[in-house]
What does this fold into?
Amino acid sequence: MAIGTPGGDVQLQSMTQAFLNMHLFGMNPQEAVEAPRFATYDFPDSFEPHSRLVGRLNLEASIDQRTFAALRDMGHDVAAWSERSWRAGSVCIASIDPASGIRTAAADPRRQSYAIAS
It folds into this structure.
């Protein structure tokens, strides 16, 4: 499986979420890249001036508002991204099933991207 995304410090977070969506939650690759995302900024940014937002979690607006409230109750600084925010990365996946040889590809609608499995 090949997986990648633009997105600075959110790259690893968004790719991990897409991977887990497939392998833990049984989503197909397209469902996995379209699922709502979140990201933490509770670490020094990779880019100058390496700022840090202690306790910050950004969640896409399509995530249930009860989740926002529960995270706030736990002490997180919760902020909303728009639904399918480009800031949540734009994961693309290509894979070949080793058993069947079937090729699949997925493109994230958060940015302009395309998926072709041939």
User: Anything to note?
Assistant: The chain has a mean pLDDT of 96.
